[in-house]
Amino acid sequence: MIDLTRYPSIVPGLLLFTPFALMWMFARKRRKLPLPPGPKGYPIIGNLFEIGNTEKPWEVYMEMGKEYGDMFYMESLGTKILVLNSLQRATDTLEGRSGIYSDRPVAPMMQEMEFDMYLGFMRYGSTWRRQRRALHQQLNPSAIGNYHHILSLELVQLIKGLESTPQKFESHIESYLSRVIFRAFYGVKIQGRSDPYMVLSSRVVDGLNIAGKPGAFYVDVLPALKYIPEWFPGTSWKGVARYHRENSYRARQEPYNNVVEKMQEGVVEPCLASRMIDALPEPSDPERWEEEIAARDSLAAGYIAGSDTTRSLCLSFVLLMALYPEVQKKAQAEIDEVLSIGQLPTIEDRPRLVYVQAVIREVSRWLPPAPLSLHHATTHDDIYEGHFIPKGTIVTPNIWAMMRDPKHFADPSRFIPERHIKGGRIDKTLPDTTEIVFGHGRRICPGRYLALDVFYTFVTNTLALFDIYAPKSDAAGSKMKYSVDNSGVVIGPHPFDCDIHARSKRHQEVIRLLED
Ligand code: HEM
């Protein structure tokens, strides 16, 4: 017997959607081809309990894959979900058939908060294409070099912070990443967490995390509720939506308008925004207006999407170095072989740092910040490997399962950078986890080159100058306690303690001599 009290948020949906579910069941009968395999559903509600189980769904889906295969399908109350548990399935559909699999499902509350104006949550179409192009022109591999100096300039404050107050490592990392992103995007130097831009961006991320939770708002279950006036009892969600809509609007407008003003005054630091503005068509061009909105909104989408994800990867790296001191020593030995003390690693050193590259691949595999990527959706019916995939299916790429696929990664729960190396080089026959972690197909993360360069800069410079240990209270590094925060769209380690200090007196001296 199912205990409905465990799933309070789905009870109203159960009642409200029963007629739709019946219609859906009859429509299914008309189809000839089978749907992909999947758990048998209950009459009327279908797979509501599998879909409604929001506790670490990436792990639940990985387990379900053992029974139903690397691609399975669930249906409930009109919602259709296809889970892709292997890289092969993601490549075949999201990349091979990207013309069909590149839409996003947009929940009514997301729309009410205007988060569908952000690239990551926008429906597939011409506005999406325009914004995507605007970002890609500034963040592609040949353009990204324009921002490498910022990674190094902002590094000094991070290194000095880690040396003077190592217990605040989390806040130093967060502040480094925000400084890099805001300076690269808008040419501004922000001042810590209380900076107005930081406050605004964290409010938008909070809103995304609230709206991203399935079943958190009744309007997601019954979209017609949005037409009920705000004075009506039980519509407090409308106030929540308005608050986040305002933040979402300000986050798109304010930093961009600031750059426009600075450009007019001739005092702007070259940045993504100024380069996008320079590249806009002439004011008389009919395309100008739309292109300017695309520039403005794609920048906001980038800085909102980039902070939490990159932070999660950096914190996972610190945690893993404390947990696996032998990996840390090996990576430091490689850096010492390539560079002398006092020389800080740069992007140009990357090809010579093979073991460090393997560490980066293994951190990305071990705790991918977006374990279920972002949902894709189909714009048309499709037939894939003899299965019928209906139009409007929500497609969930399970990055977590791909990273733990024993076909590619033996003993997947262990952290073993060596698995990525063969004959002294990166093993190109193994899937590249630093690609998988950024998603697939036309919606793949446009910030991936920037994110990887920032992450590499953080990893190499930290290893070059500091030792990271489990806190003294822990007898051995491998026994250090940690847990993962699964509460948002992006996951990462919960706050944890660790000891960070300069590797030696000479390293301490190098840090002291660094100039701000
Ligand atoms: C380690 C850091 C990062 C990770 C793990 C990550 C991961 C992802 C993933 C998994 C997706 C969904 C891809 C898909 O739908 O298939 C995505 C989308 C996106 N990412 Fe990132 N990302 C990171 C950093 C960044 C940065 C620095 C930016 C800044 C430009 C950024 C901007 C975006 C945007 C705008 C989208 C939406 C793309 C679209 O829907 O077309 N991300 N990211």
Core attributes:
about 525 residues; alpha+beta; Cytochrome p450; four-stranded mixed beta sheet; two-stranded antiparallel sheet; 12 strands; globular; disordered N terminus; binds protoporphyrin IX containing FE
Can you walk me through this structure?
Keywords: Heme, Iron, Membrane, Metal-binding, Monooxygenase, Oxidoreductase, Transmembrane, Transmembrane helix. InterPro entries: Cyt_P450, Cyt_P450_CS, Cyt_P450_E_grp-I, Cyt_P450_sf, Cytochrome_P450_fung. Its cofactor is heme. Pathway: Secondary metabolite biosynthesis. The protein is α+β, with helices and mostly antiparallel strands and 516 residues long. The protein has a single domain, classed as Cytochrome p450, CATH 1.10.630. It has helices at residues 11-29, 48-52, 57-68, 87-95, 108-112, 126-139, 148-153, 155-164, 169-186, 196-211, 218-221, 236-265, 272-278, 288-323, 325-338, 354-366, 399-403, 433-436, 448-465, 505-513; strands at residues 71-76, 79-84, 376-377, 382-384, 387-389, 394-397, 421-422, 425-426, 466-469, 484-485, 492-493, 499-502. It has a four-stranded mixed β-sheet. Helix 6 (126-139) crosses helix 14, helix 8 (155-164) packs antiparallel against helix 9 and helix 12 crosses helix 14. Mean pLDDT is 91; it is low at 1-8. The structure holds protoporphyrin IX containing FE.
